[in-house]
Amino acid sequence: MAGKKVLIVYAHQEPKSFNAALKDTAVQELSVQGCAVTVSDLYAMGFEPRATRSDITGALSSPESFNYGVEAHEAFKRRALASDILAEQRKVQEADLVIFQFPLYWFSVPAIMKGWMDRVLCQGFAFDIPGFYDSGFLKGKLALLSLTTGGVASMYTKAGDSGDFRYFLWPLQVSRQEASPPCFLHLRVTRTVNLFPF
Amino acid sequence: MAGKKVLIVYAHQEPKSFNAALKDTAVQELSVQGCAVTVSDLYAMGFEPRATRSDITGALSSPESFNYGVEAHEAFKRRALASDILAEQRKVQEADLVIFQFPLYWFSVPAIMKGWMDRVLCQGFAFDIPGFYDSGFLKGKLALLSLTTGGVASMYTKAGDSGDFRYFLWPLQVSRQEASPPCFLHLRVTRTVNLFPF
């Protein structure tokens, strides 16, 4: 990994949390290995999750009826996206590996991280039509989901109350297919640490 | 449905959108049928999606290390949640049916709606431990996902590029198991309307 660039997109409110410790450990370990590590600390940044008109600077392409996806795509092409989106896109563009560090909220990422995905990974930047999945624009980068759960590991099996964790991670996995191969790191906030790298 | 109460949680920025038309049609039709319909228009409300310290009024239960789930649960018990959360919980509590109306963003709800789920459906209100899934506190209510997609219907089949839509809706479905039976309404923004009620 020496010489590689890593972006950690991190969503936890508390610097003393287990998620923070995982993020800090990743920064330390990857730095020791010679990587250049950048962290987007979403709560600390007050990152905006809402996809709104404010994301497009200047005039709209079709002001008569606001279509976020269309306007974000057009704004990407003319470099008219909001500065916070451009800054995150720059970090993603430079990264060889993107790590998403988060606690599981309702079987998915917390809203603040969902907002990062909704706003940063816009058409033109992450994909186009055609130009998605195997031909997506982030192809060649690595992505890693590192998440904590409140429940015990057995809850997240096929026979468990919550079902196989691969089911509820599937939407995240398929969304990130541009960055392959998908790779998961699952850790529960206990002394027992479970790794599912695949 | 006469006499029933319906809450529509609606996430689209544009009053002239197809999502808005679906919402408006639902309001009109359900009202004609004798239902009392309430709409939470999340973008118009500027709904806050971020789960932060601001959601708890007054002192924290464990100020030494902020745990959102724990603090929200404690705040729910002592009626110390932020007023916007309490208002939404009141609407959910009164509703017999909750309709989620949204465009699909990255295989899930837009961040503003994910934030509604993260913040409103807190422990103590929607569930407890024990007291989840079949014994969740919203049991007996109906829930309906009404969503639009950018892609054509064939993309969301098992053999399609995006996979069976039931895969990516599964996290939403399992999350909402307290409100059963799950029921989906899938509409694409074209003249061809596809219904998948099951």
TrEMBL record, chains A, B:
Cellular compartments annotated: Cytoplasm
E.C. designation(s): 1.10.5.1
GO cellular component: cytosol
Keywords: Cytoplasm, FAD, Flavoprotein, Metal-binding, Oxidoreductase, Phosphoprotein, Zinc
Pfam families: Flavodoxin_2
Co-factor requirement: Zn(2+); FAD
Keyword Thylakoid: no
Domain Flavodoxin-like fold: residue ranges: 4-173
Gene3D superfamilies: 3.40.50.360
GO molecular function: dihydronicotinamide riboside quinone reductase activity; metal ion binding; NAD(P)H dehydrogenase (quinone) activity
Catalytic activity: 1-(beta-D-ribofuranosyl)-1,4-dihydronicotinamide + a quinone + H(+) = beta-nicotinamide D-riboside + a quinol
Role description: The enzyme apparently serves as a quinone reductase in connection with conjugation reactions of hydroquinones involved in detoxification pathways as well as in biosynthetic processes such as the vitamin K-dependent gamma-carboxylation of glutamate residues in prothrombin synthesis.
Name of this protein: Ribosyldihydronicotinamide dehydrogenase [quinone]
Organism, scientific name: Heterocephalus glaber
Higher taxonomy: Eukaryota, Metazoa, Chordata, Craniata, Vertebrata
